[in-house]
Every structure is written in C-alpha cells, then in structure tokens.
Design a protein that fits this description.
mainly beta, four-stranded antiparallel beta sheet, three-stranded mixed beta sheet, 34% strand
Length: 119
C-alpha cells in the first residue's frame, strides 16, 4: 500500500497594501531649470516627480541662471503636467547709453555745431 504524501497548505495570504503613486511631469521655460524642494535639488527639468497619492502638497522652487526664481505649491492628487515659465532678470544698471564725449570738453558743444556756416 502506498501512502499519499502529506497535504501541504499554502501560507496564509498577507494583505499587502498597494500604495498608488502619482506622477507630476514638470516642464519649464527655459527648458533646463533646477528644481528644489526646500534646500534639496530634486531634479532638472524636464523630469517626473513621483509621490504616493494624497501626499501633502510640497512647495517647489525653480532656478535658472539669468532668470528670476519662482515657487509653486503642487499636490499629488492626480497625475498632471506642471509647466512653469520663469521671468528673465533685468540687466543690472539698465540700458547703456553711448558716450557723447566728455562733459567738460569745449570742442564737443553741440549747440555751436548747429549754427555752422560751412554746412
């Protein structure tokens, strides 16, 4: 007589909690911008930032040379595209004027040249 092998029961099922993630696709103008969360660099655009769904909103800071920094608070409720446009910084000192000569140069007086009899 042959004895059947012992019946092996599968281990009990463990209910795993599946954490749904939300992806934010972050794009900027200009195309390459550093993105910070607090003082931590989280990426350079374009890139995707993923967090668990319904995570608390975070404030992101966007920085690029020659542009004013910008901040934006983003939430992780649903996948979305985030597009940020940075404003250009104004040039220091404003527009440059062409020099019109030395102010104390007696030969550069424009009023005397207007009435030139040789024209």
């Amino acid at each position: 007589m042959v004895t059947p092998p012992p019946k092996v029961e599968p281990p009990p099922k463990v209910h795993e909690r599946v954490v749904e993630k939300v992806a934010l696709t972050i794009k900027t103008v200009p195309a390459t911008v550093e993105v910070y969360e607090g003082d931590v660099l989280v990426g350079t655009t374009p890139f995707t930032l993923e967090r668990p769904k319904d995570s608390p909103p975070v404030e992101l800071r966007f920085e690029a040379k020659g542009y004013k920094p910008a901040t934006r608070k983003v939430g992780f409720v649903a996948a979305q595209d985030v597009v940020i446009e940075l404003d250009k910084e104004k040039a220091a000192g404003g527009p440059k004027k062409k020099p019109s000569g030395l102010a104390d140069d007696p030969y550069q007086q424009e009023d005397d040249l207007k009435d030139n009899p040789f024209d």
